[in-house]
Amino acid sequence: MSTAHLVVPGTGPVPVTYTDSGSGRPVLLLHGGAGPFSVAGFAALLSAADYRVIVPVHPGFDGTPRPAGLTTMAGLAAVYASLLRELGLTGVCVIGNSIGGWIAAELALTASGMPGSPVSSVVLVDAAGLRVDGAPVPDFFSLTLDKVAELSYFNPDAFRIDPAAMPPERAATMTANRAALLDYAGTGMADPGLRDRLPAISVPVLVVWGAADRMIPVEHGKAYADGIPGAQLRMISDAGHLPQLETPAELLAAVGEFTAVTWQPRQGGPRS
């Protein structure tokens, strides 16, 4: 783990904990509300597939500090744009799951209006952030862990968590992560104005969705793909809200096909 001490416009000093693994095409991998462990295995797959993978911990998750003024996805997007610049990276593909996808959408919007942005493409994996009529997002904060599994996975039994068997430190981390998630996303997990802003995105975007996702329904994936000019939608039949856990090989293949077309050689700066 490394820590970057950033000074972010509009927020001020922000320490960001992150891992940096592999070499090759640069990827920023953003976790969802489940925390950084939910993307760790996929980060290892990407690293083995000739990507350089930066995985930050959203400030406030896993015991990391969060400045009082950092409470929005747009704010997190600004933090990660600063992190990429601090690392000297360009031509970065941002991959985000759930709220990480929401942050990735904000980064895509920023990159589209900023010449020289470090972000060149985005993959939205079962991304939160939209409000879609007729396809409401459940109130995550009112759900039991068992219900979260039912809504999140194609095969819930493989991922159920028994609270009684959970180590106390893990339970405390989950509680703190839920509090940070609530501060960032609210109970609605959406920005009512985001959908209207999507047409301004001009960087290449791939939308990947687990067909069994009942946490963020498939209609949200279709809304992202329909709202972003040129966006592709790829469905994964045997996955729910977290394809990187249920079908990592299929998600890796989708990312590989996308970046093979969109990645520009000689980009991706040196390690700092």
What gross morphology would you assign?
Answer: globular
For the secondary structure, the number of strands is 8
Strand content: 15-25%
Distance between the termini: 14 Å
InterPro entries: AB_hydrolase_1 (IPR000073), AB_hydrolase_fold (IPR029058), AB_hydrolase_sf (IPR050266), Rhodanese-like_dom (IPR001763)
Domain Rhodanese: 77-111
Pfam families: Abhydrolase_6 (PF12697)
Protein name: Alpha/beta hydrolase
Describe this structure in words.
The structure is a single chain. The protein is an alpha/beta fold and 272 residues long. The chain has one domain: Alpha/Beta hydrolase fold, catalytic domain (Rossmann fold), CATH 3.40.50.1820. It is 36% helix and 19% strand. The chain has helices at residues 37-48, 73-86, 99-112, 145-152, 168-185, 194-197, 218-227, 243-246, 248-262, and strands at residues 2-8, 12-21, 25-30, 51-56, 92-97, 119-125, 205-210, 232-236. It has an eight-stranded mixed β-sheet with strand order 1-2-4-3-5-6-7-8, with helices on both faces. Helix 3 (99-112) links the parallel strand 5 and strand 6. Helix 2 packs across helix 3 (99-112). The chain is globular and about 50 Å long. The chain starts with a strand and ends in a 10-residue tail after the last helix. The model is unreliable at 265-272 (pLDDT under 50).
List the helices and strands and how they pair.
Elements: E1 2-8, E2 12-21, E3 25-30, H1 37-48, E4 51-56, H2 73-86, E5 92-97, H3 99-112, E6 119-125, H4 145-152, H5 168-185, H6 194-197, E7 205-210, H7 218-227, E8 232-236, H8 243-246, H9 248-262
Parallel strand pairs: 3-4, 3-5, 5-6, 6-7, 7-8
Antiparallel strand pairs: 1-2, 2-4
Helix pairs in contact: 2-3
Organism: Trebonia kvetii
Keywords: Hydrolase
GO molecular function, one term: hydrolase activity
